[in-house]
């Protein structure tokens, strides 16, 4: 396995809270998928969960060098498996960027406290490269 890229982001939870308060559903639907919105909205302290997902999306965005590449926020989806925790699922232009970069696997770590959220991603290329980034058997 070889590391293709690394991305990290720290977010002030108050900033995301302010965006949600000011722009409501318009902000949420522009940035998060319906599955992400449903997941975060049902949890206590939804703002911290939205903040962690925002940080994760930013970290992936940076690692894939997506700036001005036409990648929508909803093409980078942060989902959760009960048995193994959060993971990244890519679609559309984001998935194309990952494939072009030779990314086979994305490892994600989320953390934070009451005031901040942090995400760290490592993009990997396996020795036997395959293009199944984002596929969830």
- Assembly status: single chain
Total number of distinct structural domains: 1
Give the overall form. Answer: globular
Rg (CA only): 14 Å
Low-confidence stretches: none
Question: Beta fraction of the residues?
Answer: 25-35%
Question: For the record, what CATH class applies?
Answer: Alpha Beta
Order of helices and strands: EHHHEEHEE
What CATH calls the topology is: Ribosomal Protein L22, Chain A
What is the residue-averaged pLDDT?
91
Question: How many angstroms separate the termini?
Answer: 21 Å
Domain 4'-phosphopantetheinyl transferase: 5-114
Function: Transfers the 4'-phosphopantetheine moiety from coenzyme A to a Ser of acyl-carrier-protein.
Subcellular location: Cytoplasm
Keywords: Cytoplasm, Fatty acid biosynthesis, Fatty acid metabolism, Lipid biosynthesis, Lipid metabolism, Magnesium, Metal-binding, Transferase
Give an overview in words:
- The protein has about 140 residues and is of the alpha+beta class.
- It has one domain: 4'-phosphopantetheinyl transferase domain (Ribosomal Protein L22, Chain A, Alpha-Beta Complex).
- Helices cover about 40% and strands about 30% of the residues.
- It has helices spanning about 15-30, 35-40, 45-65, 90-100, and strands spanning about 1-10, 75-80, 85-90, 105-110, 115-125.
- The protein has a 3-stranded antiparallel beta sheet with strand order 1-5-4.
- Strand 4 (about 105-110) and strand 5 form a beta hairpin.
- Helix 1 crosses helix 3 (about 45-65).
- The two termini are about 20 Å apart.
- The model has no long low-confidence stretch (mean pLDDT about 90).
- One of its GO terms (cellular component) is cytoplasm.
- Its cofactor is Mg(2+).
- It catalyses: apo-[ACP] + CoA = holo-[ACP] + adenosine 3',5'-bisphosphate + H(+).
- Belongs to the P-Pant transferase superfamily. AcpS family.
- This is Holo-[acyl-carrier-protein] synthase.
């Amino acid at each position: 396995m070889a590391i293709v890229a690394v991305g990290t982001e720290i977010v002030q939870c108050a900033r995301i809270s302010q965006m949600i308060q000011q722009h409501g559903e318009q902000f949420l639907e522009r940035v998060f998928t319906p599955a992400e919105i449903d997941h975060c909205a049902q949890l206590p302290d939804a703002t911290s969960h939205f903040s962690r997902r925002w940080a994760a999306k930013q970290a992936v965005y940076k690692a894939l060098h997506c700036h001005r590449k036409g990648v929508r926020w909803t093409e980078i989806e942060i989902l959760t498996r009960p048995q193994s925790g959060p993971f990244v699922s890519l679609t559309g232009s984001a998935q194309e960027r990952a494939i072009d970069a030779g990314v086979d696997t994305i490892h994600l770590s989320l953390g934070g406290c009451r005031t901040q959220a942090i995400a760290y991603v490592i993009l990997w290329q396996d020795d036997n490269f395959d293009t199944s980034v984002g596929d969830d058997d």
